[in-house]
Amino acid sequence: MDLCNLIEGISSSLLDHKLFQMILKNDFIIYGSILNNIFAGKQNLEDYRNNDVFDNSITIYGKFSYREILERDIREFIIKPILLGNELYSKTVLVSYTLLIDDIEFILDVLYIKNDVIESCINFYNELLITVSLDKLILNRKGLSVIDNKIGTPNPFIEALRDIKNKEFRVIVKLKPFTKKQCKYLKNLKKLGFKNKDSIIRPYYKKDKKCNICYDTEYRQFSILECNHVFHKKCLEKAIDEALKESHTFSCPYCSKKYLNFEVL
Ligand SMILES: [Zn+2]
Ligand SMILES: [Zn+2]
Q1: CA 139 to CA 3: how far, in whole Å?
Q2: 227 confidence band (pLDDT: 50, 70, 90)
Q3: Does domain 199-264 have CATH number 3.90.1720.10?
Q4: Cα–Cα 20 to 30 A to 252, which of 13, 30, 161, 167?
Q5: For the chain, what are the domain ranges?
């Protein structure tokens, strides 16, 4: 399984690591700051070398009944497990493992959830096409998704998944345009306040400028493309929306310079 294909366009040596392959293979779900870091461009194990071990935290959850299998699969990385909480009476059990990955220490916090609980919340992660109202990314073996807490998300998750703060994303692999589904997903992220670090559209503040779409000089918000052509922000957004319905690329309405779709989102 190639994780970088799974979340197409986003590459990370961490996600390529055997530990993450094992986590996802066993149907555990990754959430929290680790995904945030990957989206913000922290992509190599080396980037974690000088961190405090508590900043190197990996948070996942999954079925309680898979605990032994997971521990078997990741045994080579575990230095010590610490059990937090009461295994017998609780619906969820948190185990915190100290791991050593290429000589860098990580904390792996695993929320094991008893099966009857997890069955009842199977529908709380939605496919990307559903409009979401919050900013919680998760990664499971099917790909990247967003948690929708409108559908009765159980308590432990609400608490656990609140922590994506640094709202920005970037597209690491830039060879080909995104599919419609991926574009829609990125648009959703933008609606949620995530900033596309790869966007080539900049705001343009000087006055006395003409929009190269409607040829009006009326001062509204202007945007400028990398080719230095200026448009009303609204006119440009409309042109981009129209173009991306038909194609994976967008051409500057003035000079026809081509841009890949994620560059203009
Ligand atoms: Zn205009
Ligand atoms: Zn142009």
Answers
A1: 10
A2: very high
A3: no
A4: 167
A5: 3-191, 199-264
